[in-house]
Structure formats: structure tokens, C-alpha cells
């Protein structure tokens, strides 16, 4: 007997059929649908299940560690199914796929069949459908796409459905990229969220403009707009309608034989709450989010009350209550043919009340943020190498993909989770990395072998994930013993790439040979004390041992790597004195000396004043930009609001400074390191800030490497450390920050486009999230700063860009995490405050010329070169192996304005390919144009049998998605909203297989390859 | 398709069958049964659902008022069924039928069928099976039997099963009557409980004597013994094994793909806890009570973990874990053939640690305790009248039975519930009373009519439930207008009864005529001011109005009522001066006068010294007892232990006195009221204690009526008011208190038979519950005090009996109720402390002669005469109606040592009859003997077609019950335990229909009557 029969019988059994007799079993009528002409209250049963926050994702799933928070997602899903089976009118939405997938794997086939039927009938609807409900401030758009794709494709594969609705109900502000890219481009019909600025919300409630049409991209305009709704408050039920096990809301007591019968009171409460919401909402449809964090532990408790409310409220008749979903609600809104206010840009920053700007989390846990970003780039590269090798069940990129997906959660990369949970995310990334690293090594091992040996490659590559603290056992070998070190350097970008690389070495006399065997120029830069202690402390902390030997030098050399490919470099001990690397000249001077020092071997030269706080000249002899630039450090003291009437401290979420303090560089020596490839200026800013300003031959930007921490707290106050770079650019309050590393959005200090801003936090209220960079301009120049992870930043003074690099706080900010953001690193039980090491990059260009650097170099920051090392006893490695490789046609290179953001081997001979135009409309005179990519050139030696363009999350055909897209009407004269001049790439001709990309366009394809036509790779 | 199929399918669906594939669905092996030679851990999933405590019974059922306590019994049962269906090895016990019946009525027929199947398969077992888990200290055995019967018969009727196990896991001490009467006599095979004295428990753990054979009755001995087990601690799971939704115990994380896999740790925890318990337990069977108060809100959360524990613990193999029940556990214990320590007497008083004697609740809420007792007697009488009239669906005694059943709960009559819950119990009793009152009135109306008019009786009887505060609208009529007042007085005892009754009247000149129309002697006693204010305040408080007129007198007259029948008395205005009632002589004297006053019109005379604190002589000229008796009042100040290391206040549960304070009578006037029928001595003890000492003509006991309250708290301390009656009886620390109004148990001050008592509370630790009375004796005399409700009492000094009458406390005693026991009565918003009015009765007899009074008068106190009033315009009421009636054969009367404790019309022509021998073995030389009752005489005019003797709770044939009774072995030489001299009544000859009753024996019968053979009644 099929499970359909079982399903049916259980429904009969539970919902019952009153056959008559003594039982006073009550049957509730819950079958109501929309009633035109009445106020329709859409009851949307839901649970909001954080993929980690106070507990880890697995703890939330199995319900362990309940002393921290009583929450068990397994309960939610376990209890949901019988509750839905009991009444076919009941509905539920489920959102977070990281949890759902865990649950799904635990189920019997019989249960899976039942659930499939519930999904197919619409009783259970997947909403949002990503692995996690990602943050929208500190996340990179590539990560957002990847983790959404993981969730969406699972849903498609298991249930053959595509989520229709965006549901970002908890993230702390909302990004333009979320609205247009992860909304419209995913094929969503609407997008709902809970948190917008309190001032904004007040105005929108007043003007009934909580629901809008949001056009998030200037470049894509109405072709990527979406219906978007902010809830009247949070994502919880109206007060008094919480029905979790043991909740205090009054249950509907409708048994006249028991005491406290209260049906009329509860109906009156319901109607009053509905009318109150109707008064701030357009159309006669309102949505009630019936649930909140980790609710429906026992789903029955909610549904029993909702059944009763629907039954009695509709008997009452004043309003119409129905089981609904965001999809049904969206369709109902659409059916009203209403016009909606237009919303552009984004909803940042978010404040939930005076002095409570959630702009601290843009920087919170900077190490975790950096780790996520490194893994993101690595995951992109690893999937390329996985494709070249062919996907394997055993060693693959799946764990890393899962770990990254979870890390995008709005309490993960945000830094707003408890410390043990942050550790859990890091652990997952580490495990995922380890597996991907193995895959990368073995893929490279295959690729370096000649075709004959490819099946059983012998090379064992090592990689160096701790290179950031100068630790690389693979390169730290004594080459004097006749050994060579082979470094295979992989470039995941679609362009040939010229870069300078750095590897720690023991030997003083080494030579570097390129893939052709030619000796190339190299430079030895001494490993300074600041780095040695960084290295030794963290190797001990993370690996449990202290390295016995310390490399004396960074070996620096320039490399050239083909697109989506690698080159190999051989490092060996110098055979003859003259052929070894140049040692850098090192000059140390005291800040008391009054003099200037110029550095830079190429077009860009910087002049440092040795006097503290003196200006630095920035001169580019090519672009003729000349500017005085001053960089400084400072900190804000974390506000202690514990004794205020409405207590508000600075904390993991909230940035609330209590005064600004400039850090004056201490009077200690600075060191100048010079050589043929790089020049560096080392400065001890103070005892806990070390900075290296670095110029590379052939590059026209300044690289600033900083080591910040441990932030001292012995004065009892938390501190939030910023760096300011000050120029004379006359930006008149205006600056630009990226949205999730993609579109730049204009910001104006102390101003909001959507309402008259009441400024109560002149610093915190002007902070914005930065993933790619920030820039400002005047009529001559533009000044850009790029970052290596998400940070918060602003321009608090004209000409100045400020970035928050690190935060260490001693108080909790009362948003639930209940822990002070006080990160430490421990060796055994000796813990000290977290030290952050990072880089930022800046450059000043003539007006109109900055975008090219921001976009192309930004992509290089996101996708750094990938190193794999192996030792070789003899010299002939290069001759016996394939020293260089490109995955694409050797004659081909992607246009400068395009990146392959996904190249992934799907199971079954299908390839997932995403191509991204990197420029916005009008950003660059040459590159902000329609461009194209020849697919055939991307897969040399393989035949493309089919190309299917899909939605961004690759779960439906783009064509069908466009066909069913709801076309929302926008308020106001159509001339104002006309964007018909904007274009998108046209259809892909199946013969030519050329993909057009308009500015900011990302196109996603599933490509069927005929395997191994010619085994050229 | 039958529900069996549905059941089967759901089991398949949930428990699943792994058909192979991607799912890693886990199937746990939970099929383990007992393994000989291993330690067997019997896991007993259970919930303990208080039938009212912090919330009312209905609030607990529907889950309202959750802000007080998150608890919803509906959830428990709703969630239980699918959890049991999911795995046929899972078991659950359900206890409290008040909840189960509420739930059952809500279920569909389909669900009822499923549940019946679960009960029949043993997965769901009813344990205890009474309506509530009654208290064992403040409850009367008749109430215990009634409420157990209600539950057991429902279970029998709906499920055809009989509960096998007593389960009194939470009551605060355990009574002998519970063990033998509500245990063995109900047919239970064992009896489990959680709370015994901490010193006792420590010793028993040490000696492995937590489990015993309990022989509760001296009279019935081993024929009524039961296997009885105290839990090692409370009734909760071992620490760390709580699995309620959101509980903090670590769940078994057995998914190796998730973090924090902990199977071995949890198995180790389990084994350690098992071994620890095994070390204090005989045999290799231990029971774990897997649940606690209101747990299994979502049963799945428990069963999921228990499944895993059973699976993995048994894989581990060190111990054997199994789903079990108290029945299975009992059978396993029995199968070991072990001998057990013998336990006699009871487990009172209960202390859970030093200075924490739960002896306060013996008296807490004395008004509720009295209300329950009044209703209990009324319920007994009302069911008799219901039987005479014939049971009706519309107006019956069911609500009162239900209300009384619930009121026996161990947080109801105990006084340990929150105030609003106490109000709820009172409200239920009041509603139940109202319905029963209507039934009683209409039954009496039928019975007073001649046979011809019986179908449509015209008489409208009124009753006076507020007679205790002198309020009786029915009697407060102006008889001068030619009206007569008819008082029908019903006697529910099986003996003819001579008593003195009191009715408030307006008129001064009234005469009283008996059923034969003869004028009888009567006396008018002035209604004193103390009563007038009591009356006016409480009528205003409870009825909302102030009576316009106040009766001046109590009309007092002696009555004689046939067994199980009534007589009618006519009160009319006196036709001629000489025939009216005697007015009492009233003499008031001041305490400053030095003189003595003698009162008493019969054998008993008391001499009061008018000087305060002077002794009173007690002289019985018949029995020649002469004694000096002193009665005094005092109070204990409630201990404030809030600043102690282990805080322990005196509170609703716990009596912890902080010093004793004698209340010295104030120097005010006392009043002597004398008359032909009663003499009274009125004394203002102080401004809040008023006392009347009353002697009735023809009675040889002293009746003391007290009005205590409001207890003053303006000094900021709570007080517990006691009265002491001091004699010269040389009792040498020994005294006797009843067990639930039935067997008397010897108490020895500062001593326990079962262990060496460490005395830390010399007063509170010597308190015992008293329901019927307390007595002491020396070699000449015995001094007995009977009470009108349950109270706490002791003999703290030799010769003295102390009773706690009232408690008003300002602090909570930290046992969960979280409220101070500070009862008030409010008129509008003006509240004052509760005033208690009550009676106690004392008598001094020659040694060996006290029992007869205690037993027979005790039964009269329990079953007071029932008054029904009607007005009559003419004199001929008696001629036109049946003025007197007896429900039994007019020639018959029950033996003096037997009471009918139940006579109840069951549906379907069956009668429930319970006959109780009232005497213990050896208690009275004449009455402690085998006696008999002629059933035929009890049902005159009806033919008995069948007599079936049943268990006490009338849910199984006694014969079958005896047949399957487990015979437990007792430790020690059999000579010590031999009680073969004890006897019980023999089988009932179906022809003779004579029931033999041995001392203390209660026999229960279902009697089939052939209806209306002769309509003699």
C-alpha cells in the first residue's frame, strides 16, 4: 500500500470524522481562502532558525546545549509533519536549508515521500531556500550566490520546486545586491524583511510605504526589480499570539464545559490587531508572521490555536483569517493591481532606536571575516581544479561549500555569535579547507604530470594556509642540500596575471627559475621581529608547537600566470654567487630625525616624512596624480550605557563610540626596506599597531599591511580601532561604498534619501559595510581604498576615509548574544587579545580612471594566487612535468570586464558556469559596455552539447523564470521611472555560443559537455 | 478501512523501514525485555500532572495561564499517542484521570479507538487511576475511596482494564490507609511513592530497605499488605536525563556527521547512574522514573532520547535498559522471590531536610478543609437520596463527585495551592453542591409526597449551606403571619439518631412539633454579637448583600431520625404562651470576679473558674470520670529563615515555629447561657478568638466552637494558632492519631519506630495529621478529641493535646507554591484575614471506653444531619405528607459498628454499596467483633437479583482480584509476622445475603436490583 493511503488515513485518524456519540470532538473549519472586500489576515506559520548564534548549527539541530538556549530544530521538523497531515489547510514555510538538509538525511524513505507530497501540495513551502539566511552587509555576493545555489539546487533536485520568495527577516539591514541579485535574479517574486531603520520605519508606516518596488541596481534597473516588504515590526506574531509550548499568550479556550471560556475575547484581540496593521498597509491584505526564533518545537501547539482562531474569527466575520504563505500573500498583493512606491539603493545602516546603530558588526570578528573571504576565493579556485580533475565522491569541495554557506549566516560572518559558535564556524571552514586542499593538491598533481602519468600522479603538493603568519613548512626547507622547491602558482581569474609573490625561506642564497627554466629576478626581504613573534605565537596556539627554526627572509619575485591556469617556479640554492636573489637594503631611522624618505621603484612614489604625523607625498609619474596623503590610527572607546535609562553599550552588533582618540605614533624607529621588486616602510605605530606600507614594482597602488592588537583593555574600556587616510579630495560629504562587493552606492554623510535624518550618532550613523572598497571623488581625482575582508567604514571628514579594523569590547550590547566581543588567542591557558593582520590598498586616480583598478585589482584581491609546493631532488622537474597550464583555450583570455565567478563540475557531466560583468553602467568609459565571452574557448578539447541559461541560483531555466515573473507597478509618472535605455545581453546563439554581458550582468549557465573529446588537459 | 490499518501504516511511516538509498535514517532497537543476570534498568516514561496547584485544573489542561507555569496536559496526551504509535516497544503510564477524562471527551472516535488499542496492548497503562493523586494526610478515607472509584470505574468501562499499581509519587508523606485500603484493598500489586523523611530515607538507602512489604492495618494484617517502594529520591529521572522540550540534559548525539558525537559519554553516564541506584536496591531491577511535573508536553523529545539510550546502552552491554512500567517492574521484583522488610504504621510526618517538616499543611487553609469535609458528608447523603429518587442525567451528584475528587488532590485539600487555585476548588465544590442540593431537594420532595403525588411533587425545599455563619433565609421567616416552617431532617447513617439541632429564627415565641405532631421541647439561644458580625460580613462577602434583618435566636431542639431516613419538624408561632420555646438564661460575669460556674444538664458537668487560666473541672456522674481540664490558646510565630544559609520559612507546606506564645485571655466578660437542652459558655479569648463551650442534654462530650481570626499580622509576623487541652492523663509521650479518619496509629513523641530520630524540630516534628481525632490514655482514662476537618496536632506535653486551628503566614516556604499563605476575605476591595469557625469535641472516658464515642460520634460528625426547609401556610402539612421515612426496612438498623459509606445508584439498575466496619481489632470489647449486615433489609420492597463483591474501587470482582494477588515474602522469622488470628468476613451466601464484616473491614458490592417490586418508598 502506498504512502498516499497512509497519509490519508492518518489525516482521517487525527482530524477525525465525528461519527456521533459521546465525544465532543471539535472540528474546526480552516478552509478559508481570500475574501475580496474583506480585510484578509494572512497567517503565515513559520520558524526562524539561526544557522548558529548562541549555539552552533549542530547544537541547534539536535537540541543540545539547551542551557544556553532551548532550541532544537529537529523537533520543529519532526513535529511539523504530523501537524500538517492533520489538516490539509494548514501551511508552513521552511527557510534554512542547512537545517532542512540535516533533517532530510535522517528521515526514512516513507517519511521522505510524505514530505514530498506536502511540498507538492503547497502545505509545506520552501521560502528563501538558501542554506542559511545570509547576512547582507558583511557577505560577498559570490558567497551569497553560492550558498543560495546550494540550497536551491537541493530543493530542485529533491522536490522539483523553486522557491518563489525572498525571506531575509532577521538580517540587520538590507542590501541592494540582495534585492536585485539574490532577489530578482534568483527569480523571486517578492522579498520580505524585518529590520529597517526605526526612523525610516516610522515614516513608512505613516505613509503606508513599508511595501515597495525595490530597484537595487542602477545598471540593471527595472529588469531586476522586486516587490519588497518590510514588516511593521520584527518578524514575530502580534503581541498575545505566541503559541509555543509554554508560551504565555492566552490560548483559545472554547470548551464551555471548562472554566475560563474566552472565545469572544480572543476574537476581539485578533480583530483589533488586524485593524491596527491594516491601518499602515496598502490593500486589504496583511500578513502575520506566526512564529519567531526556533518556534514550532511542537508545531501542534501553534496549529491548534491557529485552527481555532481561523474558525472563530471567520464565524465572527469582521475580518477574514486564513492559513497563507508569503507566496499566497504576494499573489494577493499582485492581484490588487496596486502601484507601489519605488525604492532604490539599500537599507543601511540599520538602527533600531536612538544611539543604536548596528554598524559595529560590519567589523566584528575581523579574523573570522578574513577567514571567510580567503576560503571564498579558495573555494572558487578549488572548484575550477575539481572540474579539471573530474568530480569525486570522496575528496571534493562539498564540505568547504557547506561550511562557507553556513558562515554566511547573519550571525556568522557578522561576528554576532557567541565565541564558541565563532569557533565552530572556523572549525567547519578548516575541515572544509582541508578536504578542498587535498583535492587541489591532487588536481594540480594530475595537471602537472604528462598525459601518460596522469592517472597515477606521483607529485605530493603541499600548501601553506598559515602563510598569513609567515608559516610555510613547505617552503621552509634547507635548499643547500641539493634540493629544489617547486612552486606551482594557480590563477583562478580569466586573465593572464602579473603579480609579485612572497615565500618565507631559510636560505640566503637562492635563485628562482620560471616555467621555461629561466632564472628570474628575486629579492630577499628580512622577516622582521614583529612577524617572527606573530608567527611563533600563532603556530604554537593553532598547531601546538613552536617551529624550531625561523626563516630569515621572504623571497619575493614577480610571476606571470596564464588565465585559469598555473605556472611553476623553481627555487634552489644559488649555484654561483651572482645569480642569487638580491638582498633588500634595510635602513632604520628614528622618528626624531627630521628628513624625508622616498620609496617606490616604478611610477608610484611615496615620500615619507620621518617626523611623526607629517604628511606623505603621493606621486604617480604616469597619471601625474600628486597628492598629500596622511594615514593615522585612532580608536573609539566603547560606550558604557549600562546606567542609562535605555541602556545601550557598544557591542558585537552596535557601534556606539564614547569619544575619539587619535593614536600618536610612538617615537621609535621606522625601517625602510628597499629592493628591485618591492619597497616597504615599516612603522611601529604603537606597541600594539605595526604597519608596513608596501610598493610593488609595476603596480600603481599602495599596499598597507597592518598588525593590530592585542587591543589593550587594562584601562577597563573596550576600544574600536580605526585607520584614517586623509587626502585633499574635496568630496563634499559624498562617498561610495560597495554593496556586497558588487555595485557601489553613493553615501552622503548625515543624510538619508528616504527620510529627514535625525542625527544622533554622527559617527556610527554614517558607517557603511565595505566588502570591496570605498572611494570618493571631486572634480579632478578619485581616491579609492580596497579591503581584504568586510569592514565598516565611512568618510567622517571631507577628504578622509575611515575604516574600522578591529574591535575589542567589554560589554554586551543587549541584542541577545549576551557576551562581550572580547576575542582572545590562547597558548595553553594563557590568553591574550586577538591580533589582526590585514591589508588595505589605496590609490588616487584622475577622475574617471579609478574604476578599472578597483574592479580588476579588487577581483585579484578576492582571488589571490594559489600556491602549491613540492620538493624536488633533481633539477629536471620542469622538463619531466607540465610546468604551465591554462584551462581555457591558449589563444583566449576573458575580457577585462568579465570574471568567471563559478566554474563547477555538477554531477552527471554538467558544468555550472557563471559569468559576471564587473562594471556598472557609466563606471569606466571603455569597460562599462556590452561585452562577450566565447564559451567554446572556455572548454578547449570538449564539445558543448547544450547550454541552458538559468536563474542565478541555477534551479530553473531563465526563460521560464522571466516568463512567470510578476510585473509590479510603480507609483508616480512613468517618465521618472523609465530605464528603457538599459540593456542586457541577448540570447545565446546555440551555434556561436557567445555570451553577451551588459554592465553588472551575471549570467548563469548549465553546460552539457561531451566528455573527453580530446584529452588535452 | 479499520483504524488498525491506519495504526499500522502510521507506525510504518514514522518508524520507517529502511529500504536503502541515501537516507541515513536510524532504526533503534528498543525491543529489549528483562535479562536475568544483568542489572535491569526499567525506564518508566511518565508525567506527573497536578490536578491544580499553581494553576487550576482546567488551566493546566488547556495550557492557559502559562506565565505562572508552562504546563498543558492536552499537549502531553496529544503528543503521546503518535509517539507510542511510532514504536510498539515504547510505553507510557498515565495517572491522573481528571485530566485524562477531559482529554478523552475531546477526542474523535477514531482516536479513541487508537488509544483503546494502545491500552489493550499495554503500551499505555493507567497507573493509580484515581481522578487525582490524592493527598494522604488531610483526606478522609471515604473521599479517597470515592475519587479512586470514579477513576477506576471510568477506566474499566471505557477500556475494560483495572490499574494494578498505586502511584502516589508526590504526596507529602504516606498513610497506612493508603497502603492497605487504597492499595491492597483496591487490588494493587504494589505502591510507589517519592517522599519519605530524609532521615528515614538515608537509613533505608543504607540498608536497601526503600522497598518493603507494607502492612498498614493492625486489624487486617497480611491480608491487606502490599509491596511498597520509596524512590531513592523524588520521582524524577537521574540527573542529566531530562528530555523535555528545551531541557538542558545532553541529548544523545549519535550522528557522526554532526559535531559533538557523544554516545559513549552518555552510555557511561547511564551506566554510572544505574550502578549507583543498584547499590541501594535489592535485586537486579531498578526503576527510573523518566519524567516529572507536566513533562512530555511533546512526548517525542523524551522517547527519541530513550530510544537511543536503550539502543546504545544495550549495545554497550554492561547493564540492560528497557522500556518498562511499574507493573512490569513489580512483576520482575516478584519473580526474584526475594523477601522484603516489613513496614507497619505510616510515613508521617515528612521532612525533606533539617527543620523542614511538612506538617504545616495538615492545617493550611482550614476553611477549604472544612468545606471539603462538609461536601464529603453531603455527597454521601445526596447519593442515598439520588438512589431513592432514581438517577437522572440532568440533575445528579456527578459534579459534586468530580469536584470532591479533584479537591482530594495533594495540592488541593492540603492547602498548598495558590490562592486563585484554592478559589477554583471552592467554586467547583460550590457548583457541584448547587446541583446536588437541587437533587436532594427534589428527592426529598418526592419522598415527602404520598405515593399518589410522587411523580409531580409540589414541595419546594430550601437548604442552608451558610448555616455555619448563622445564615438561613429558609428559616428566617416571620412565623407570626400564620406560617409554619417545615424542617425535614435527613440522617444518612444506618442507625436511628438522636441529636440536637439549631436553626436561626426571628420569632421569640415559637413551638416545635415532631413528625407525629407532638409539641417538643425547644430552647432559644440568643445570637451573640460575635455571630452577628460573622454572619453579616460573610453574607456580604459571598452573596454581595447585607441581610436586612438579623435573627435574634438559635432555636434549639432535640430530634430523633430513623436510619437512612428523615423526620419532619414543624416550627410555628406559639398559639399559647406556655407552649413556646424556653428562652435561655443568660448570665454574664467578669473575669475579675473570683467564682466558679457549673454548666451541664445531664451526666456531664463542667465547672469553669471565672478567673482566667484557672482549671476547669470535668465530671461525669455516670462514668465517674473526674478530671481537671484546662483549655488554652497560643500561637507559633512563623519562622523567617530568609537570611539563613539554607533558607527555610514556615509556609503553606512547612511548619517551622519561631517560639511559642500563649494567648492570655483578656479581662473581659464571659457569658453563660443555660437552658433545658444546651448550656453554653461564651468566652472572648482575645479580640480575634471567640469560643463557645457547649454541653448538650443527653450527650457526654464537650463541644468547643471556636471563631479564630483575622489573625493579626500588623507586627509583621505570620502566626499559627493552636489550642491546647490539658489534662492530668499520664500518657508518657504516647498518643494516637487516625489515619485518614480510619485506623488509629500510635505516636510517640520525639521517636520513630523505623530509625533513631534526630530531633531538630521538637514541635513541628511531632505533628501528625488528624482527620477524625486524637486521643491519649494512661492506665485509668482515655482522653479523646474529635475534629470537624483535618488539622495538624500532637501531644507536645504529657497530658496535653494540641491542635493547630488556623495559620496565617507572610512568607513562602520554597516548595514551589511561591505565595505566602495569607488568606483573606474581601467585601469589595476591603480584605481582612480569614476567620475560621469550627468545632472540636472532647471527652474523657474510663480506659477502654473511649472508642465507642470516637467511632460512633465520629461518624455523626462526618455525616451531619441534613436540613431541608419549606414554608407551609396551614397546619396540616404533616397530615398531607409523609413526615418520616427510612430507606431501609423499618424493623432494621445497622449494627453500631457498621456504616454504609456508599449507597449509590449506578447506571443500569445496579447499586454500589459499601459497608464499613468502624472498629479496629481490640478497640472495643463489644464492638471490635465480627458483625453482619442483612442486605435484604437494606432494600425493602426491592428484590436483589445479584450481589457481586468487588474490589474497594468497584472495578473488578473481589474473587478474581484475590486470585491474582501477588503474595510477597516478608523478611525475618515467620512467627514474628504471623497474623493468622486475624479474620475477615466470609463469602456472602447468595440466598441469605448476609454480609459479615470483620474489624476495619470494608466490603464493596455491586447489587443488581429488580426494580419496583413493591413501590414502598
From TrEMBL, chains A, B:
Enzyme class name: hydrolase
Domain Glycoside hydrolase family 38 central intervals: 356-429
Species name: Parasponia andersonii (Sponia andersonii)
Protein name per UniProt: Alpha-mannosidase
Sorted UniProt keywords: Disulfide bond, Glycoprotein, Glycosidase, Hydrolase, Metal-binding, Signal, Zinc
Note accompanying the cofactor annotation: Binds 1 zinc ion per subunit.
GO molecular function: alpha-mannosidase activity; carbohydrate binding; metal ion binding
Transmembrane region(s): none
Family, as annotated: Belongs to the glycosyl hydrolase 38 family.
Catalytic activity: Hydrolysis of terminal, non-reducing alpha-D-mannose residues in alpha-D-mannosides
GO BP terms, alphabetized: mannose metabolic process
Signal peptide: 1-20
Domain of life according to the entry: Eukaryota
EC numbers for this chain: 3.2.1.-
One Pfam match: Alpha-mann_mid
Amino acid at each position: 500500500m502506498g504512502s498516499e493511503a497512509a497519509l490519508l488515513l492518518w489525516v482521517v485518524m487525527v482530524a477525525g470524522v465525528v461519527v456521533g456519540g459521546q465525544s465532543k470532538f471539535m472540528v474546526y473549519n480552516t478552509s478559508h481562502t481570500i475574501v475580496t472586500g474583506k480585510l484578509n489576515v494572512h497567517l503565515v506559520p513559520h520558524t526562524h532558525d539561526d544557522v548558529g548564534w548562541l549555539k552552533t548549527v549542530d547544537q541547534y539541530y539536535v537540541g543540545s546545549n539547551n542551557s544556553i538556549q532551548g532550541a532544537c530544530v529537529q523537533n520543529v521538523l519532526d513535529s511539523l509533519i504530523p501537524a500538517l497531515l492533520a489538516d490539509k489547510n494548514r501551511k508552513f514555510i521552511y527557510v534554512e536549508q542547512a537545517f532542512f538538509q540535516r533533517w532530510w538525511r535522517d528521515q526514512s524513505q516513507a517519511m521522505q515521500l510524505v514530505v514530498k507530497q506536502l511540498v507538492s501540495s503547497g502545505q509545506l513551502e520552501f521560502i528563501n531556500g538558501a542554506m542559511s539566511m545570509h547576512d547582507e552587509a558583511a557577505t560577498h555576493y559570490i558567497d551569497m550566490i553560492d550558498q543560495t545555489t546550494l540550497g536551491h539546487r537541493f530543493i530542485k533536485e529533491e522536490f522539483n520546486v523553486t522557491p518563489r520568495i525572498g525571506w531575509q527577516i532577521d538580517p540587520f539591514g538590507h542590501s541592494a545586491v540582495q534585492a536585485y541579485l539574490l532577489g530578482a535574479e534568483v527569480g523571486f517574486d517578492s522579498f520580505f524583511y524585518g529590520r529597517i531603520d526605526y526612523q525610516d520605519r516610522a515614516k513608512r508606516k505613516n505613509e503606508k510605504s513599508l511595501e515597495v518596488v525595490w530597484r537595487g541596481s542602477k545598471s540593471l534597473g527595472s529588469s531586476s526589480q522586486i516587490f519588497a516588504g518590510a514588516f511593521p515590526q520584527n518578524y514575530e506574531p502580534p503581541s498575545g499570539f505566541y503559541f509555543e509550548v509554554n508560551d504565555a499568550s492566552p490560548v483559545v479556550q472554547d470548551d464551555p464545559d471548562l472554566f475560563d471560556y474566552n472565545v469572544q475575547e480572543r476574537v476581539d484581540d485578533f480583530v483589533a490587531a488586524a485593524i491596527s496593521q491594516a491601518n499602515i498597509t496598502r490593500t486589504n491584505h496583511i500578513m502575520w508572521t506566526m512564529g519567531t526564533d526556533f518556534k514550532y518545537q511542537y508545531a501542534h501547539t501553534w496549529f491548534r490555536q491557529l485552527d481555532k482562531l481561523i474558525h472563530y474569527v471567520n464565524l465572527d466575520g469582521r475580518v477574514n483569517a486564513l492559513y497563507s504563505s508569503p507566496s499566497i500573500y504576494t499573489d494577493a498583493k499582485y492581484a490588487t493591481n496596486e502601484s507601489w512606491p519605488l525604492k532604490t539603493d539599500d537599507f543601511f545602516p540599520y538602527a533600531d532606536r536612538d544611539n543604536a546603530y548596528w554598524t559595529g558588526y560590519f567589523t566584528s570578528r575581523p579574523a573570522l571575516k578574513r577567514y571567510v573571504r580567503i576560503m571564498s576565493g579558495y573555494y572558487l579556485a578549488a572548484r575550477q581544479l575539481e572540474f579539471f580533475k573530474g568530480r569525486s565522491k570522496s575528496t571534493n569541495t562539498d564540505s568547504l561549500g557547506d561550511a562557507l554557506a553556513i558562515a554566511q549566516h547573519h550571525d556568522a560572518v557578522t561576528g554576532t555569535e557567541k565565541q564558541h559558535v565563532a569557533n565552530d564556524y572556523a572549525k567547519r571552514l578548516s575541515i572544509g579547507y582541508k578536504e578542498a586542499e587535498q583535492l587541489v593538491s591532487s588536481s594540480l598533481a594530475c595537471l602537472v604530470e604528462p598525459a601518460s602519468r596522469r592517472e597515477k600522479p606521483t607529485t605530493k603538493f603541499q600548501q601553506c594556509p598559515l602563510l598569513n603568519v609567515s608559516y610555510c613548512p613547505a617552503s621552509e626547507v634547507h635548499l643547500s642540500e641539493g634540493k629544489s622547491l617547486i612552486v606551482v602558482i594557480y590563477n583562478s581569474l580569466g586573465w593572464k596575471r602579473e603579480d609579485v609573490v612572497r615565500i618565507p625561506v631559510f636560505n640566503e642564497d637562492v635563485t628562482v627559475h620560471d616555467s621555461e627554466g629561466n632564472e628570474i629576478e628575486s629579492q630577499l626581504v628580512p622577516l622582521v621581529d614583529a612577524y617572527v613573534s606573530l608567527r611563533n605565537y600563532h603556530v604554537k596556539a593553532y598547531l601546538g608547537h613552536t617551529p624550531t627554526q625561523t626563516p630569515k627572509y621572504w623571497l619575493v619575485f614577480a610571476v606571470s600566470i596564464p588565465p585559469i591556469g598555473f605556472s611553476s617556479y623553481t627555487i634552489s640554492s644559488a649555484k654561483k654567487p651572482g645569480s642569487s636573489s638580491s638582498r633588500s637594503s634595510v635602513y632604520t631611522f628614528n622618528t626624531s630625525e627630521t628628513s624625508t624618505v622616498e620609496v617606490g621603484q616604478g611610477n608610484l612614489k611615496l615620500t615619507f616624512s620621518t617626523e611623526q604625523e607629517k604628511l606623505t607625498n603621493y606621486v604617480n609619474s604616469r597619471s601625474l596624480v600628486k597628492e598629500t596623503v596622511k594615514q593615522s590610527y585612532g580608536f573609539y572607546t566603547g560606550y558604557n550605557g549600562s546606567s542609562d535609562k535605555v541602556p545601550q553599550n557598544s557591542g558585537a552588533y552596535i557601534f556606539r563610540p564614547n569619544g575619539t582618540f587619535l593614536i600618536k605614533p610612538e617615537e621609535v624607529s621606522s625601517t625602510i626596506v628597499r629592493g628591485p621588486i618591492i619597497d616597504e616602510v615599516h612603522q611601529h605605530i604603537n606597541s600594539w599597531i605595526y604597519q608596513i606600507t608596501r610598493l610593488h614594482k609595476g603596480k600603481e597602488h599602495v599596499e598597507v599591511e597592518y598588525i593590530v592588537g592585542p587591543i589593550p583593555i587594562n584601562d577597563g574600556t573596550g576600544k574600536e580601532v580605526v585607520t584614517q587616510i586623509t587626502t585633499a579630495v574635496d568630496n563634499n560629504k559624498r562617498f561610495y561604498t560597495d554593496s556586497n562587493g558588487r555595485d557601489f552606492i553613493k553615501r552622503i554623510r548625515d543624510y538619508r534619501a528616504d527620510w529627514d535624518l535625525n542625527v544622533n550618532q554622527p559617527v556610527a550613523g554614517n558607517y557603511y559595510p565595505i566588502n570591496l572598497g570605498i572611494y570618493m571623488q571631486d572634480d579632478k581625482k578619485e581616491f579609492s581604498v580596497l579591503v581584504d575582508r568586510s569592514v565598516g567604514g565611512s568618510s567622517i571628514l571631507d577628504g578622509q576615509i575611515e575604516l574600522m579594523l578591529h574591535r575589542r569590547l567589554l560589554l554586551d550590547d543587549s541584542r541577545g548574544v549576551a557576551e562581550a566581543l572580547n576575542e582572545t588567542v590562547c597558548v595553553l591557558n594563557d590568553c591574550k587579545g586577538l591580533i589582526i593582520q590585514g591589508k588595505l590598498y589605496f590609490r588616487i586616480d584622475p577622475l574617471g580612471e579609478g574604476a578599472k583598478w578597483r574592479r580588476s585589482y579588487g577581483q585579484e584581491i578576492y582571488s589571490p594566487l594559489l600556491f602549491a609546493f613540492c620538493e624536488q631532488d633533481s633539477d629536471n622537474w620542469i622538463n619531466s612535468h607540465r610546468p604551465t597550464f591554462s584551462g581555457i583555450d591558449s589563444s583566449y583570455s576573458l575580457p577585462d570586464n568579465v570574471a568567471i565567478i563559478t566554474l563547477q563540475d555538477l554531477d552527471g557531466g554538467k558544468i555550472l558556469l557563471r559569468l559576471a560583468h564587473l562594471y556598472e553602467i557609466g563606471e569606466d568609459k571603455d569597460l562599462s559596455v556590452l561585452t562577450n565571452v566565447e564559451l567554446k574557448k572556455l572548454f578547449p578539447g570538449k564539445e558543448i552539447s547544450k547550454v541552458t541559461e538559468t536563474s542565478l541560483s541555477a534551479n530553473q531555466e531563465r526563460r521560464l523564470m522571466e516568463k512567470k515573473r510578476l510585473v509590479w507597478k510603480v507609483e508616480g509618472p512613468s517618465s521618472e521611472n523609465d530605464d528603457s535605455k538599459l540593456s542586457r545581453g541577448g540570447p545565446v546563439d546555440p551555434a556561436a555560443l557567445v555570451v553577451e554581458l551588459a554592465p553588472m550582468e551575471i549570467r548563469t549557465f548549465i553546460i552539457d559537455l561531451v566528455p573527453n573529446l580530446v584529452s588535452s588537459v
